[in-house]
Design brief:
The protein is α/β, with parallel strands linked by helices. It is built from 13 helices and seven strands. β2 (44-49), α3 (52-64) and β3 form a beta-alpha-beta unit. The longest helix is centred in the last third of the chain and has 16 residues, at 245-260. The protein is globular, with a radius of gyration of 20 Å. The N and C termini lie far apart (42 Å).
């Protein structure tokens, strides 16, 4: 199996080392790349993921590497950090990591709705057991103004109004049921209106905006960051890897607000270097913001 490649590993190591005897919460476990790095260096890790598939993949991966002794996998949402900590961790931690990117199995899997080629689903819920609206629900029921707001604010798509208007008009003839049908339709909008198509798929920002909206990611991240400050030790670190300017702006504003209350110090902003981007092109939009509790 091909596992998702973690980004900015060396930079995170430089911030957190030495790892021996440290307790770390990986709040977005994914395929476990960061967690395995921590375990290999002697840390104790509590890995949280609300995707049961990810949790199973990573737990098995860690077991095969004989690293399970210092690892606890937890099926939960990082919005429940305080509750999880009280029930299962019950100690101050040295660091909490949030990596907000999708794992590769989520990006490419069918019947999840994240892939442009998914011809089975337009779901996009990270936890498919939750009874919450899917991307399919949003695309087929929201008004032009509501879709425009999602696409422009969360996705920062320049052509948001045109795309929203076109989707509402098209769904009157035939509703959208799969990610592929939506992605193909967005491509057709660009072609019919002679809009420039670069190296990035025209539906990229729309899909990102829908994922954020479906999973209420901005509100959830704000909640998790607020909880994190009370869970880490004095001089403990919070590290957040974002892949989109909307997410990064939220983290930046949180840091600014916390700094004004003299809660944090040693604020870092780090991007992947040229070598990493060349080896892993998906890292090109990654941005790490790290800060330390006073």
């Amino acid at each position: 199996m091909i596992y998702h490649s973690p980004v900015l590993v060396n930079e995170i190591n430089q911030i957190l080392a030495p790892f021996v005897s440290k307790t770390i919460i990986d709040a977005t476990l994914g395929n476990g790349g960061h967690t395995i790095n921590f375990l290999n260096q002697g840390a104790t890790v509590f890995g949280i993921d609300k995707d049961q598939t990810n949790l199973s993949i990573t737990t098995n991966r860690i077991r095969k590497l004989n690293l399970e002794k210092n690892f606890t996998g937890i099926l939960s949402d990082f919005t429940d950090l305080s509750l999880v900590s009280k029930k299962l961790i019950n100690r101050p931690v040295d660091a909490i990591l949030f990596d907000l990117g999708l794992s590769i199995n989520q990006q490419k899997s069918t019947n999840r709705g994240f892939s442009f080629q998914d011809d089975l689903s337009l779901d996009m819920r990270l936890n498919q057991n939750q009874n919450t609206p899917t991307a399919k629900d949003i695309i087929n029921s929201y008004s032009v103004q509501e879709l425009f707001s999602i696409f422009s604010v969360l996705g920062q798509e320049v052509h948001s109004l045109l795309i929203a208007q076109s989707i509402v008009k098209q769904r009157q003839l035939k509703q959208f049921h799969t990610a592929k049908s939506l992605a193909d339709f967005i491509v057709s909008i660009f072609k019919q209106n002679n809009l420039s198509i670069g190296k990035i798929h025209p539906a990229t920002k729309i899909f990102l905006a829908l994922k954020i909206a479906v999973n209420d990611e901005l509100n959830n991240l704000t909640s998790a960051l607020n909880q994190s400050l009370s869970l880490i030790k004095q001089s403990g670190w919070i590290l957040v890897i974002t892949f989109h300017s909307t997410e990064d702006r939220l983290v930046k504003n949180f840091i600014k607000s916390s700094k004004s209350q003299t809660i944090i110090t040693n604020i870092l902003k780090i991007k992947p270097n040229f070598k990493e981007i060349k080896q892993n092109p998906l890292s090109r939009s990654a941005l790490l913001r790290a800060f330390q509790k006073v």
